[in-house]
Each structure stands twice: as C-alpha cells, then as structure tokens.
Amino acid sequence: MQALISLIFLPLALLNLLGGIVAGIWLAILGEWAGIGLGIAGLLGGALFCSLLLLPGFLISIPAVFLLSKGGLGKFLGFIIGMIGLLWTYIVMSGWGMFAFDYFIKRADASSYIPYLLWAYGVAIGPWTYMASKEQNDYSNISVFFLQIASAISIIMIGLTNITGIMMFVIFSGVMLFGYIVNLTLGGVMALVEAKQHRHNMEAEG
Q1: Which domain covers residue 119, as residue numbers?
Q2: Is 33's pLDDT higher than 50?
C-alpha cells in the first residue's frame, strides 16, 4: 500500500513543483507570450472566478450546516442537502479543469503542444490548490487531489494518444465522480462516528 501511495504522490508532487516552471520557460523560449499571460491571468483571477461559481453550492450548504447540528431526520436531511452542495463544487472544479485543457490545447501547435499541456495543468489546479490552502480541511484536500489526478491523466492521454474530446470528458468526469464518492464516504463515516460519540456522551451523562 505504501508503494502504491508513493507511486501516485511522487509524480504529482514533481508535476506540481516543476510543471509550471518548465512550461513557462519552454513557452517563453518559443515566444508564446500571449499564452503565458493568459495562463497567469487564469491563475490569478481563477480563484475569484471559481469562488463566484461556487456561490450556488454555498447557498445550498447553509441549511445543510443548520440541519446537521440537529439529530435524527434533520441530520439525515442535512447530509442529503450537503451532498448536493458538494456535487456542485465537483461540477465547477471539473468544468474549470476541462476548460483549461481545451483552451490551451487549441492554442498549441506541434512545437508547443507539450508545454501547453503542462501549462494547462497548472491553470486547471492552481486556483483550487490556493483555495484549499486557505480552508485547510480534509474534504477540500481530497477534492484537489482528485482534480490533480484527473488533470495528470489528461496530460498523458492527450499527449500520448489520439483520444477524442468526448472520451476525455468521460475520463475526467469519471475520476472526479470517484473523488466525490470518496468525499461522501468520508463525510458519512465521520457523521456516524460523531453520532456514536454523541450517543455515548449522552448515556454517560444520564
């Protein structure tokens, strides 16, 4: 298991650390200054833009937080509503990531294909990595992790195969859907643990 975790995390860590730097230098050598500027704009403005897109999910989550503080049916309804809010977050993340790859690949030619793939990866994950660093919770980190995996797979599939846009959409969405399920499972387990602990405390007080 440790070897499998290292096999996943090490390439992602290297890609996160060096991908943007290598891509930026490579594109500068090629004279792709417009692409560099657009990527920087995406990185700087993406967090604000994505935050605005997340507002519907945030509004949905407000009653979920209230209901989760209640017991019984209220807690169950809160979890269901929270699922919808989280789903919207994953939809926005997926949409931003796929847009970044689609946009920059369309700008690329034979000489700039690889650096634009790396550049797209940075733009796809950059705003979300920044926002997750501010929130500092496991759920946000899990979401960003699966976005990184989906984006890394996009680099491999687009760079090495003749994959169609529809198939790439299916793969990207599939990875993000799996991440959504993992997040839900973690949330459900934590809710059960908290409910059990609360019941234990009530019995102890009684």
Answers
A1: 2-205
A2: yes
